[in-house]
Amino acid sequence: MNNHLRDLRAERGWSQAYLAEQLEVSRQSVNAIETGKYDPSLPLAFRIAKLFGLPIETIFIAD
């Protein structure tokens, strides 16, 4: 699964650490999601979408 998380985070000037804190996950988890090494759980994907105020399908793209 591909995603736009890095771009969305950068647009807001947020660090990986800040995003991780908001999502209550580790910075390493944010990095792994951004690089495509890890697909978030559905509850985490919903939290990410809510935080950015966007639909999930705007952030995550199925392969």
Explain the overall architecture.
With 63 residues, the chain is mainly alpha-helical. It has helices spanning 5-12, 16-23, 27-34, 42-52, 56-59, and strands spanning 2-3, 60-61. The N and C termini lie close together (5 Å). The mean pLDDT is 97.
Task: State the gist of this model.
The protein has helices spanning 5-12, 16-23, 27-34, 42-52, 56-59, and strands spanning 2-3, 60-61. With 63 residues, the protein is mainly α.
Give the strand order of the largest sheet, numbering strands 1, 2, ... along the chain. 1-2
- Tell me the Rg in angstroms: 10 Å
Whole-number mean pLDDT = 97
| N→C terminal distance | 5 Å
- Major sheet details: 2 strands, antiparallel
Percent of residues in helices? 55-70%
Q: What layout of secondary structure does this protein have?
A:
Elements: E1 2-3, H1 5-12, H2 16-23, H3 27-34, H4 42-52, H5 56-59, E2 60-61
Antiparallel strand pairs: 1-2
Helix pairs in contact: 2-3
Features of this protein?
63 residues, mainly alpha, two-stranded antiparallel sheet, 2 strands, 62% helix
